[in-house]
Amino acid sequence: MSLSFEERKKVILDILDLEGKVKVSDAEQLLNVSGETIRRDMDRLEKEGLLHKVYGGAVKTKQKYERTFEQKTSLNNLEKRLICKAAANIVEDGDVIFIGHGTTAYEIVRFLSDKPNVIVVTNSLPVLSLATECFQGKILFAGGEYEHRQKFMGGPLADLFFNQLKANKAFVAAGGISLTDGITDYDITGAAISKKLIERAETTIILADHTKFGVSTFAHICHLEDVSMIITDQKSSIQWQERLAQKKVELLIASEMLEDIHV
């Protein structure tokens, strides 16, 4: 029985999610249809903005620039909040934790109200602002050069600040997660400070919603082998769990109901 367009679409997008690219010849074999059918499918998917056609196949559509912090706060909001709650659940009372910049990591402190002995260290102004409202533990804030679009501190002074500290866990948001390129970000300054957090922590936890998988952005943060765990939402492909397990990275799926998320 031949597959419908919607079924073929799912397979093509799953391959793109994992590999970042798909060849017409590979899809032709996998789906047992003609190359012409695959090319027509890719034409439709390109018009929907889901991929970009290249010679012999297609690649995943990439965001050419990073949206501002304010623009990103409204994207995948529930998924990010679920991810933050799952992240807070693995924090032990008494931990020292680094929370990096980015909207995916922003709300972790909201779910730490029952852990007053945690020390939060951050370079993110929104995290600092939220922590002063809802977190009772100690807060350390990195100085440095202020990055207006993403609202974080970076540069040599922030680097020096984190060099003096050591954390049990670092929670770092990713711009992209790729099997070949590892963890990436859109911005060199942001990637550099995320790299420093990872260097100074015993355990690294990457926070990323499903849209970040199979994506490689401008600046490299670290290899997948440097990561202990990735926390994502339940829209992520299950195949990522198998691929990451091969690299000794645990994939934690945040999947609670909206009613369980208390503001």
UniProtKB/TrEMBL annotation:
Domain HTH deoR-type, by residue range, is 5-60
Q: What SUPFAM superfamilies does the record tag this protein with?
A: NagB/RpiA/CoA transferase-like (SSF100950), Winged helix' DNA-binding domain (SSF46785)
- The record lists the membrane-crossing segments as none
One of the record's GO molecular function terms: DNA-binding transcription factor activity
Superkingdom of this entry's organism? Bacteria
Protein's name according to its UniProt entry: DeoR faimly transcriptional regulator
May I ask which residue range the UniProt record assigns to the signal sequence? none
What are the UniProt keywords, alphabetically? DNA-binding, Transcription, Transcription regulation
Report the PROSITE patterns cross-referenced here: HTH_DEOR_1, HTH_DEOR_2
**Which species expresses this protein natively?**
Lysinibacillus macroides
